[in-house]
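Give me structure tokens for this 143-residue protein.
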Amino acid sequence: MAVTVLIVDDSKTARETIRYHLSEIGCVVVGEAADAAEGLKLFRALKPDIITLDLMMPAKDGTDSMAAVRTMKGENPDVAIIIVSVLPLERVRRSFFDEGVFDYIVKPLNDFSFRPARIKLMRAFPELAGAQAGRRSAGRLKQ
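Here you go.
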């Protein structure tokens, strides 16, 4: 069964980068939203396994993000929420982890910033590790 993802970020470039990195490990992006309100609607409709949530979007700040995390965890305690932000402050990160956030990725988004989250996701979702192994094998066959 596919591991599904909802991406919530106001930056189209960030959404594309997140989609790329999560698709590389076998995740299936089932929806994208450019703001928190749309993201919450899609979250309720799609019930993804994973949601990535930008902290800094128009008409939303960190307090609103914390409320969104609480709502999502209340509606689906098993959802893996990954915060994506330019805010590297440790106390901000800790407060989200205390709320049950799965991981926190600091922008700029690149291979280095995504590596820990990708490893953690493959451990939490064994089917991703299997998909990754299958892709490596398929790549060797093409060579």
